[in-house]
Design goal:
The structure is a homodimer of 457-residue chains. By secondary structure, chain A is of the alpha/beta class. Helix content of chain A is 38%, strand content 24%. In chain A, the strands form three sheets. In chain A, strands 1-11-13-12-14-17-15-16 form an eight-stranded mixed β-sheet, with helices on both faces. Chain A starts with a helix and ends with a helix.
Chain lengths: 457, 457
């Protein structure tokens, strides 16, 4: 019965396995030391944030970011750097939004608000109407046209603070932003105010993509800060609110040209097998996109740099990809797949970092057995570097399309506690990134790429 | 042979163990939800930081902090709140320090510097001399009196960036601050400039305790910022530095009275068995002591609050203790032990939080088998709340003295990447604490206290 639990063949493999693990552990230590001592991700991120800044798809800054990261990839030691042209939506915010709440017998209260990405504008005249608060779509459905028609709907879906991983709360409450406008419009609303998807209470409105359902009128949608949402909800309970009004002039322009930026180190055994590591280059326009996703972009470039720096000659072709347009279209990720199919490329593995440059805790592995088991065998190699939470999960929006061609995928899971404090808000700036945290993420990503390249999957 | 690995008696215990774990898991979820929804640690910390601020032992603010935390303990639901009087050192910084480097043919360079805690002053005339850089005590020994006599020694001991847990680097480089002045004085130096013990590069000098060895002259000691240390080292290599000078008027005054603040929930089965949870109330004078250790203090009060709030009636007496004078004397911790011995108290367990209010990753357990194994059995209960790294290790400076009377000890291990960016510097302010991170620490501490109280050790 012994054999049942421990096949005899393992005995032959065991010494090899141990030697391999100790070699790998030494190489990963080398990678880690190189990143922690000489890592460039943080200084590259400073450049992206401070010299270029916000870089929404279609903006002049997005173009500058394309050029800057192409240069950084060269400096990192890529054999080849090239651009993948790709049409992207071109949304513009327009003039600074304004919004007010009129409370009985008091001066009007100015809201901290911003247009949601992709939203159409009110025009300069704005909208003005009574406000109806809902805390779920079910509540909206129950109120129906009788109550909602002609009104501004206030979608107050707080992120659930009891979820330890904040992405779960974002996923749940996120429907208010993504679908809220069309849902409210289906009952005749003339505008929506969405509570910012934020895990903290402050005055910063958080933008982010919304989408219209073509079956309903396209009404303007803005986000208000969490502090304002709490205040407004209280005033509504007191029946003190007379009217709400807001003006935004955001608009969707014609699609425009942009690029994914790709840097490669060509594999010396299986050059046609491609391993991708990436983040997205575009960012929302309210801040510097430091955590979202300047961090992931710079970590991906650092992966290439450190592999070169420690003298690894990869068997497979390693590509660092700066995807364009993750935030309001996902066109870069789609284009990357399209070209992969068109060029009949073999994509073994794709790793994405788009959850911020915080201290890493794990990887989400989007693959089946036996690949999952293979990666899990490496778990103890990551433990000294703070990564312990390796489990099946979704990878990311930009490498995600590669699933269609059978690519095995993963996503870096950094600590998520602070991400939604700054995500899509004016506070997503370089100063809110820690150098050590960012670099720890990069070195763990490099270690995973090193192992996948060495052993395959 | 089966029995060897799995004693038959375990079979009887197994169902009980499973039921117990699921009960415990439900209770810990209740604790977690309560802290994450209604936790008071963050707002209490805001008060401590913004309404009181720096609170070095012997300062009027330290006294205010004693009064404020006594009130907070009452509000948290402690049965009894009392003070433990304790004499503390009373060190004062004096006027704002000044320091300059004179470089050949250039204007003098003003340093970003501060006196080290406990250092004596130069007097208003200051010191002025040539500078000798050393990067280790060995190097200092080799240079000896011939080179060092009459000079200012620049102790440039960078924190090793390759250590993943930053406390290890702090421990190693820390000798430059703790022992550097007397070591340099033993070779005739007239002053020391210490590179700040910081994991980042910026202009903020980091203070912290130093100690004199009575066998040598007591020379003044200051810390300079990491940016200045890098710059100075470069200038010295270029042989461009003519002289360094600095002035500080810090002084050690007579000991003065202060207090530990204690809040208790009396146990209802074994009231004489005491479980302590604490942090230290004093802080350095350059900032608000938000991470060090306002965080630990507020987490400890929160432990008491949440146990009450979720309706736990502890078997043993739970004490939240705000220790005084950890930073430059450790007198509060010593006094706590002294009174425990004097009152013949039984101290079962002591838990300290003094590594910042960052996302928790683990507990360091200062205990022998079989207690260690017992705690390790609870590991899976903490995993959903981000705590996975439970291992033998040193607890903390304030509960540490209790080891003498056989108390089992533990320390909270939060993520350490950002701690030494702000530690003892002007940047250790409330704004650099995350509410969710702080509260996650508190809820894990409360869970551990709950388990120790319920099962004993």
């Amino acid at each position: 019965m012994f054999k049942k639990f421990f096949p005899a063949s393992c005995f032959y493999l065991l010494p090899f396995f141990c030697v391999a693990q100790s070699e790998d552990s030494a190489m990963i230590k080398k990678i880690a030391d190189e990143v922690l001592i000489n890592g460039k991700a943080y200084e590259n991120l400073r450049f992206l944030c401070k010299k270029i800044g916000p870089r929404l798809s279609g903006s002049p800054q997005a173009q500058k970011a394309v050029e800057a990261t192409a240069r950084m990839l060269m400096e990192a030691g890529a054999d080849t750097v090239y651009l993948q042209p790709c049409m992207v939506p071109h949304w513009v915010r327009g003039i600074k939004e304004k919004g007010f709440i009129q409370v009985a017998g008091k001066p009007v209260y100015p809201l901290h608000l911003c247009s949601l990405g992709n939203s159409l504008g009110t025009g300069k005249k704005g909208v003005r109407a009574g406000v109806i608060e809902v805390r779920s779509f079910k509540e909206l459905d129950q109120l129906g046209t009788a109550v909602i028609k002609g009104k501004i709907v206030f979608l107050n879906f707080p992120m659930n603070p009891t979820y330890i991983k904040t992405f779960r709360a974002y996923g749940e409450s996120g429907i208010s932003r993504w679908q809220g406008a069309s849902k409210a419009a289906s009952y005749g609303a003339i505008g929506t105010m969405v509570r910012s998807l934020a895990s903290n209470e402050d005055d910063n409105p958080h933008t982010g993509a919304m989408a219209y359902n073509d079956s309903f009128p396209k009404i303007p949608a803005v986000a208000i800060s969490t502090n304002d949402a709490e205040w407004l909800s209280k005033q509504l309970k007191l029946k003190m609110v007379v009217k709400a009004s807001f003006t935004n002039t955001s608009a969707m322009l014609a699609d425009t040209i942009s690029y994914n930026v790709v840097g490669e180190i060509r594999g010396n055994e299986f050059p046609k097998e491609i391993i991708t590591v990436g983040g997205h280059l575009d960012s929302w326009d309210l801040a510097e996109g430091a955590q979202d996703d300047g961090a992931g972009v710079m970590q991906s470039i650092e992966v290439l740099r450190v592999l070169k720096a420690v003298g690894i000659h990869p068997k497979r072709t390693i590509r660092a990809v700066m995807f364009m347009n993750e935030e309001n279209g996902g066109r870069g990720g789609e284009k990357y797949l399209e070209l992969a199919e068109q060029n009949k490329e073999t994509h073994l593995f794709g790793l994405e970092s788009d959850d911020g440059g915080f201290t890493p805790r794990g990887f989400r592995l989007e693959m089946n057995e036996p690949q999952l088991s293979k990666v899990m065998q490496w778990k103890n190699l990551f433990y000294p570097y703070g990564v312990y939470d390796m489990a099946a999960g979704e990878s990311g929006a930009d490498v995600g399309p590669l699933k269609k061609i059978g690519t095995l995928l993963a996503g870096l899971s950094p600590d998520s506690q602070r991400y939604f404090d700054v995500h899509h808000a004016a506070t997503d700036v370089f100063e809110n990134v820690s150098k050590r945290e960012l670099h720890l993420g990069a070195l763990n990503m490099a270690a995973l790429i090193y192992l996948v390249d060495k052993y395959g999957l």
